[in-house]
Amino acid sequence: MAYPTVSAPYGFVPLNRFDGLPYAGATQLYPVTSGQAVYNGQVVQFVNGGTISPIADIHAAINTVGVCVGVQYKNSSGQTVQAQYAPASGVSEVYAYVVNDPAAVFKVAVTGNNQTITPIAGTCLNTNVQGVTGTGSATTGDINSSIDGGTANSTAAHPFRIVGLVEESKTTAGLYSEVLVKINGTSHQQVSTTGTTT
User: Fold this and answer.
1) Rounded Cα distance, 93 and 108, in Å
2) Where are the domains of the chain?
3) What secondary structure letter does DSSP report for 103?
4) How far is CA 155 from the centre of its chain?
5) Residues 159 and 58 sit within 8 Å (Cβ to Cβ)
6) CA 110 to CA 9: how far, in whole Å?
7) 66, 69, 125, 130: least CB-packed within 10 angstroms?
């Protein structure tokens, strides 16, 4: 039997770099667009005006700066809070800690487009896949994003590349409930030559 069993998606978790170097925890602090809730494990992008926002739909082609791994903000008492997520209202001066390395590799659960764990064969390695946006939880501070294993193919517009398989959660049937992905090519805003406007 596989261990551990993956029962639900949990967002994108940074592990290492595509070149094999370990992930050292490096992040960049970016201001979040006012009125936007942002969650741990959520894919985010730069928008016009120099702030970041969660990407509303990671299903198809996207432009992303990386993945949020925590936030800081001022609460209604003016205290600085560091947390897993920031709500859309009742807070100010919201910043997100973002893993913005274009070579970063993330562990992520494999689902269909309905958030149900749907393990896939190891032949998915080096294919491109679409994401499943998910919903943020105010209880855990995480978002339940995942990748849609049913979309694994060579399509260049798919925003993620499967670069590794997670053996620990392989099912008894030899299928993979989790994979390792990186942001695909020019989907990453900091390697694209197109910037945002002020």
Assistant:
1) 30
2) 13-187
3) T
4) 20
5) yes
6) 7
7) 125
Whether the model clears a pTM of 0.85, i.e. scores above it, the answer is yes
- For β-strands 146-153 and 104-111, DSSP reports them as parallel
Q: Report the Cα 13 to chain-centroid distance in Å.
A: 7
**CA pair distance 195, 150, nearest whole angstrom:** 32
What DSSP line would sit under 116-148, residue for residue? -B--B-GGGTT-EEEEE---B-TTTSBB--EEE
Digitized pLDDT (tens) for each residue of the chain, 198 residues in all: 456 788 999 999 999 888 877 778 889 999 999 999 999 999 999 999 999 999 999 988 788 999 999 999 999 999 999 999 999 999 999 999 999 999 999 999 999 888 899 999 999 999 999 999 999 999 999 999 999 999 999 999 999 999 999 999 999 899 999 999 999 987 888 888 888 888
Q: Are 129 and 155 in contact (CB under 8 A)?
A: no
Amino acid at position 116, single letter: T
